[in-house]
């Protein structure tokens, strides 16, 4: 009886010893190694801009023009203020629109009633008697974008189709460059009653696009369309 009891005690002590060893092994894995964490890193991205310090829009309204009148209308793009790298190309869109036909009346003719002329299709009709228009800028050398019945170096007639993306300068505009556009107009004294009440609208829009990654102006001329620029929008 006594031998059997002693055996059980020894076995019990062995089990306790084994459990203690297991507990020690687990504690070593959880708390025994040093470690560290690298602080989080933030990456911030911001797009650049293509902007002017004045809106690229202007309105010049002239009414009650009579033969012999002339004038100018100035369109300022004061300074390019964008932040995209390598600056921006400037382009000019032009169009002669809204033709308003004349409402001629019978002219004075001594000794007879006179003949009512055929109504002009618009105040600007691309002839020597209608409204004369030229659009230039203040760059050196000066660039001409429209000269009566020509733009982009090509002759046009009548109300003229519109043309887009006439290059302002082969060098990209940066924050140190600016340009001023001037519209010069006149109505010749040879304009007769055919132009009475006639009208036309000349629309000019200046826009810009980033120069970087957008082709090249090599071989292009200011005032013409530059096919080397990949995209204007």
What does this 3D model show about the protein?
It is a single chain. The protein has 233 residues and is an alpha+beta fold. The protein has a domain at 70-210. Helices cover 13% and strands 26% of the residues. The protein has 1 helix and 9 strands; from the N terminus they run αβββββββββ. The protein has one helix at residues 2-31, and strands spanning 70-77, 88-100, 132-137, 144-147, 150-151, 154-155, 163-167, 179-186, 199-210. Strands 1-8-3-4-5-6 form a 6-stranded antiparallel beta sheet, with no helix packed on it. A hairpin with a 2-residue loop joins strand 4 (144-147) and strand 5 (150-151). It is elongated, with a radius of gyration of 40 Å. Residues 5-28 have low confidence and may be disordered.
Write the layout of secondary structure elements.
Elements: H1 2-31, E1 70-77, E2 88-100, E3 132-137, E4 144-147, E5 150-151, E6 154-155, E7 163-167, E8 179-186, E9 199-210
Antiparallel strand pairs: 1-8, 2-7, 2-9, 3-4, 3-8, 4-5, 5-6
Outline:
The chain has one helix at 2-31; strands at residues 70-77, 88-100, 132-137, 144-147, 150-151, 154-155, 163-167, 179-186, 199-210. By secondary structure, it is of the alpha+beta class.
Structure keywords:
single chain, 233 residues, alpha+beta, 6-stranded antiparallel beta sheet, 3-stranded antiparallel beta sheet, 1 helix, elongated
- Overall body shape: elongated
What is the typical, i.e. mean, pLDDT?
79
Radius of gyration: 40 Å
State the strand order across the main sheet: 1-8-3-4-5-6
In which range does the helix fraction lie?
10-25%
């Amino acid at each position: 009886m006594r031998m059997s009891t002693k055996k059980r005690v020894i076995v019990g002590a062995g089990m306790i010893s084994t459990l203690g060893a297991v507990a020690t092994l687990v504690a070593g894995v959880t708390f025994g190694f040093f470690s560290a964490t690298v602080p989080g890193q933030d990456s911030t991205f911001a797009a650049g801009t293509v902007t002017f310090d004045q809106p690229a829009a202007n309105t010049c309204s002239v009414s009650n023009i009579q033969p012999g009148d002339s004038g100018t209308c100035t369109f300022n793009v004061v300074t390019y203020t964008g932040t995209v790298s390598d600056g921006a190309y400037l382009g000019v869109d032009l169009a002669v629109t809204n033709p308003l036909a004349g409402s001629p009346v019978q002219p004075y003719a001594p000794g007879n009633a006179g003949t009512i002329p055929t109504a002009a299709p618009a105040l600007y009709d691309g002839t020597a008697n209608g409204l004369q228009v030229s659009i230039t800028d203040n760059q050196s050398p000066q660039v001409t974008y429209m000269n009566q019945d020509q733009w982009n170096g090509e002759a046009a007639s009548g109300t003229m189709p519109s043309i887009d993306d006439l290059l302002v300068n082969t060098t990209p505009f940066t924050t140190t460059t600016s340009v001023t556009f001037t519209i010069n107009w006149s109505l010749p004294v040879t304009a007769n009653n055919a132009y009475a009440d006639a009208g036309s609208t000349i629309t000019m829009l200046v826009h810009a696009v980033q120069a970087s990654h957008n082709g090249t102006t090599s071989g292009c001329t200011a005032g013409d369309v530059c096919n080397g620029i990949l995209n204007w929008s």
